[in-house]
């Protein structure tokens, strides 16, 4: 995305109890953005939840839930708290502006507004928002393979563990390690080793494609697959699929004592998270222990706990 594109094609939610103001802002922004609108605070929050706008233009004074209450509700909701809010209001005293910024707004525009100024401010806030999104995405992604990094996995497994506990559903993990990868690097060189990691991770990612599934790079040549809402049977289906697909990939590994192609070993573990007093740590150790058994018993396979 170019710098110019960063400032365009946003999804902007305009919140105002006066239809006339919404129409003016819609007219000002529609050439560059998708414009949604809400006539009160409750409706604004509902649309924000359903449509995830990039930016909200919010009237401070509205009957019922006012703009300050809307910002407070947005900031308290994990999925909405990063949406930037620009206050657009007839209040024009410095203390009004200060109050809006302290409540969590990123900018303040006084009515009657100048349309060119509104456009320019929207562009600049949209650019900042998209840069922040890109930084967040980078900080959660492994640079070599493009899959989630370990920190992202740690945050996600905690959240999914709690979600599965609330829903009374199981959660499975597959710890995955490429066999004899040191010998691969020694034989083909480090760059070929990097390319191998990319091919294997892309193949594994395709094997678990439900929206809640997450493949993460856990260490050098070690990956972990998080399968929320999946029991042991489902995890075995995925593990078998991964074994098959990695075989089909048939990347030559002339130095491997296991097979003439690159193979992987896996450890599976499944739990039903309890509502209280437990974390995913023991489950991760369990998967790791099973991976160790897969290595010990010949590699190119998976092991699963029998309990
Ligand atoms: N090319 C490349 N190699 C890496 C990367 N990260 C880790 N490695 C290598 O992965 C190898 C892992 O070696 P070991 O832990 O001894 O395991 P292994 O050779 O795969 O043997 P087993 O796991 O027992 O089958 C080391 O040689 C690391 O240098 C990376 O990003 N790129």
UniProtKB/TrEMBL annotation:
InterPro entries: CheY-like_superfamily (IPR011006), Diguanylate_Cyclase (IPR050469), GGDEF_dom (IPR000160), Nucleotide_cyclase (IPR029787), Rev_trsase/Diguanyl_cyclase (IPR043128), Sig_transdc_resp-reg_receiver (IPR001789). SMART domains: GGDEF, REC. The modification 4-aspartylphosphate is found at residue 59. The keyword DNA-binding does not apply. Residues 11-126 form the Response regulatory domain. Keywords: Phosphoprotein. Residues 169-307 form the GGDEF domain. Its EC number is 2.7.7.65. Coiled coil: none annotated. It is an enzyme of class 2 (transferase). It catalyses: 2 GTP = 3',3'-c-di-GMP + 2 diphosphate. It holds the Pfam family Response_reg. CDD domains: GGDEF (cd01949), REC_PA4781-like (cd19920). This is diguanylate cyclase. It comes from Duganella lactea.
């Amino acid at each position: 995305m170019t710098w110019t594109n960063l400032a365009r094609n946003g999804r902007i939610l305009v919140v105002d109890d006066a239809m006339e103001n919404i129409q003016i802002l819609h007219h000002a922004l529609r050439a560059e953005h998708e414009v949604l609108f809400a006539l009160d605070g409750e409706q604004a929050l509902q649309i924000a939840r359903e449509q995830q706008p990039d930016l909200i233009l919010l009237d401070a004074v509205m009957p019922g839930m006012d703009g300050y209450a809307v910002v407070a509700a947005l900031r308290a909701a994990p999925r909405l708290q990063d949406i930037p809010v620009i206050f657009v209001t007839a209040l024009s005293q410095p203390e009004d502006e200060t109050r809006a910024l302290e409540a969590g707004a990123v900018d303040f525009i006084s009515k009657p507004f100048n349309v060119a100024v509104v456009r320019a401010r929207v562009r600049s806030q949209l650019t900042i928002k998209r840069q922040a999104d890109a930084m967040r995405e980078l900080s959660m992604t492994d640079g070599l393979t493009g899959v989630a990094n370990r920190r992202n996995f740690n945050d996600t497994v905690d959240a999914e563990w709690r979600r599965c506990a609330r829903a009374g559903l199981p959660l499975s993990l597959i710890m995955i390690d490429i066999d004899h990868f040191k010998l691969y690097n020694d034989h083909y060189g480090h760059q070929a080793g990097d390319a191998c990691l990319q091919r294997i991770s892309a193949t594994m990612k395709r094997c678990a494609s439900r929206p809640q599934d997450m493949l993460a790079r856990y260490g050098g040549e070690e990956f972990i697959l998080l399968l929320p809402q999946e029991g042991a049977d489902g995890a075995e289906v995925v593990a078998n699929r991964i074994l098959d697909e990695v075989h089909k990939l048939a990347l030559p590994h002339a130095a491997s004592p296991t097979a003439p192609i690159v193979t992987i070993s896996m450890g599976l573990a499944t739990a039903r998270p309890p509502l209280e007093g437990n974390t995913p740590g023991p489950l991760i150790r369990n998967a790791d222990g099973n991976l160790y058994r897969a290595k010990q018993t010949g590699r190119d396979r998976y092991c699963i706990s029998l309990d």
